[in-house]
Amino acid sequence: xxxxxDYYEVLGIPKxxxxxxxxxxxxxxxxxxxxDYNPGNKEAEExxxxxxxxxEVLSDPEKKARYDQFGFAGVDPNYGAGxxxxxxxxxxxxxxxxxxxxxxxxxxxxxFGSSSRANPNAPRKGGDVRVGVNLTFMEAVHGCKKNxxxxxxxxxxxxxxxxxxxGTTPEVCPDCGGRGVVTVxxxxxxxxxxxxxxxxxxxxxxxxxxxxxxxxxxxxxINVKKTLEVNIPAGVSExxxxxxxxxxxxxxxxxxxxxxxxxxxxxxxxxxERDGYDVWVTVPITYxxxxxxxxxxxxxVDGKVEYTVPEGTQSGATFRLxxxxxxxxxxxxxxxxxxxxxxxxxxxxxKTQREAxxxxxxxxxxxxxxxxxxxxxxxxxxxxx
Length: 385
Prior knowledge:
The protein is of the alpha+beta class. Helices cover 24% and strands 25% of the residues. It has nine helices and 15 strands. It has helices at residues 7-11, 19-33, 42-58, 61-70, 98-106, 137-142, 287-292, 351-362, 370-383; strands at 129-135, 144-155, 171-172, 181-188, 191-198, 207-208, 221-232, 241-244, 260-266, 273-275, 278-285, 294-300, 303-309, 318-321, 337-343. The strands form six sheets. The chain has a four-stranded mixed sheet with strand order 10-11-15-14. The longest helix has 17 residues, at 42-58. It is elongated and about 105 Å long. Mean pLDDT is 83; it is low at 81-116.
């Protein structure tokens, strides 16, 4: 059996990574190795399973704490079973049940003993399926409908999800009596020790299928490619997650279905720049418009509006359009739009234009230039005449 890689190594993050760093790393890798983007690629499929397992532990504060302290044994009591090493608290360290040992010392607070083992036949929720969706800037701002295609596990219709061929049912495992684990005794220098290990006959399920369904090969579930329509609400941004409840993998033993988690990716817009729910746009104006003021057309996410640029506007000046930004996600109201103007200096002037501009410049005085006046005053104060 291949040795498991450290979960932090799997996600490519340091041990002290924050929850946001864990989420970002997982999302990047999940999209890279998702089966939808790597059809028929077994290596990508295995990597996808590996990063999902790592994320399931590291994104859960309680599991992460146990993993940081005890390693794989802290999150999987069966880790190391049958490997002959010190892998798991559930067995394998010289035959000693370390779960029972810790329970004797600390009063059973570790929860790794047989008494805390979950019923293998209890209903279990199906896994979540994560899928990315690409949006344009305007689709994210106004909302839209998108079709997403994914692979999910559905209950086999041939056997009704039991995994057993028609006319048969799964049987209680005679080796473990339906518990999913067996007790193994081993004689050591310290006496006879016993440990619990997953039942090899039923694979820890408590039941086994004598005549498996030929359609699902006894698993009770089959992989199905599905296309779903998702409503993208107005105001989503990069990394926004949308949950489609009950649309994920089918549950086990009558458990509920998992969810589909849709992760949004928003393409940058060449005109608009987003800052939270506010929008920034840069509008070029002419030299004369800046000097004398003018009505200019300003683009917003809801269309064009007219704005009066005041006389004497300087390049880089910013104006605010209240309520012209992006709608708040899941709430009322909108952000604002900020208009940054830049004064475009004309090029390729002809002789007539140059002479006219020179006469205009000669008619001006220092009082007409506030910034130059302030600059040269500071220059004189600092360095003298």
